[in-house]
What does this fold into?
Amino acid sequence: MIEHLEFVVHRLLELVGGWMCALAMTVVLALAALAFLLLNLFKFDRDSCRDAMQRISKAIRGSWGWLLTAGLLLLQIYALSELHQGFQQRLKQQGKAQFVVGDEAGGGPTTQRAPKISMLESRETVETVSLPEDFANLEQLPIWSPEPARYGGEPTIALKSEIVKQGKNQILTRTFLRNRFVSSKLQGSDVRLKLAFQDPRTGAAQLYKADFQASYTFANPMSEARRIHFSFPLPDNSGTLSNFRFRINGHEVPTPDIEQGLEWEAELKPGEKCVAEVAYLHQGAKSWSYDLTGRREPIADFHLKVEGDRNELKFQRGSLYPSSVASGKWEWDLRNQITSQSISLYFPYIANEAIMANLFVFGPLEIVILLALTLVWSYLRYRRVGPWRSALASLATCGAYALASYLVGYLPLWLSLVVAFALAGWLQWQTLGRSLWIVVAVASLAPFTFLAPGHTGLMLTSLGLLVLTLAVRETCRRDA
It folds into this structure.
């Protein structure tokens, strides 16, 4: 705070030595030219010269207050620029800080990939080879001792060799047994996702807490018993998972090693079904996706239901659009479809830093509009407002911007604006009086239009047209 004030003081000194110096030189030259003209006028017509000097003196005495108000307006515009830079510096310092006082988001854009079902397949191949009559060294034949087939590994080959003597010839019979896991498909997927959005105070993305619950049904489609492998990958970029649950047919499955995700393997009888249940909580940001495109296979029966406590949801390009949309609910129902698209949800959010930056850009314009409306409405209401009261009203607005830039670090943005501009509105009400209520209302309401990104221009235009309508009606009533 002290360093920022010192920085502002130094910049003010630079300001005085910069454009203020140029302004002073312009004023001096203008006064010198005016003095030269008055001296020439004094030589030829002294009475006219005295009369002109009296008028100039009277005009200066009557307008010096407004000149100071104009100078104060320039200083306020400069102060708003410095406040904006100070706000950005504080945000950068917070982002570089090694320690935080609140909960830090541990996740980012999260992607949950669909699980995979595989079954063990065995194929047997027999080859026969005729050996020479003098071949007697059976140790020359290759012998393998392969490991059992594992999911995710290369196909394994088991070899069995046998020599049978037929007359003078020897027949070598080789039996190759190839074991590998081949892809199967899910019979049904029922996925439910509940989103609880959070409102970050400064420059972060849209955070959310997700409650993921899924039930997957699969079976052995073959006419003989097969070994089935179920693989469920953990979500990408999900941060910390809590309340984790993995069940098969209602029984908890231990998960000693989940580096490659959740895995379960067992031998199923022909037509035997299994139901896998997976549930967890996690925190993410910006987006959530469900990847259906791990394999190009028909989706037998897929159902996804997303519920959120807000309606701010969009779909990324290439995403599957929901089958039904309701208030805070989105559902996808897919049956017997082959698709290369995923379900990608995006949660739009405008950072507080961007909103405050737009506010500080609008701030100088608001102060100018405030002074202009003060002059217009004081004229329409037959109420003279002097430069001192006008300057106090503009200072209240500038102070509101300064207060909001600091409160946003402690309170939500909307509450910071309510506190800051409610105080400024009360000060302007006391300064300008009840007859200029429209000026106070416009100055207090205009900043809140920036809380609706994408609609700010429409709201400001509507507010300006409302003020213009009231001004036209007041003018007609005044002339009647």
Summary: The radius of gyration is 39 Å.
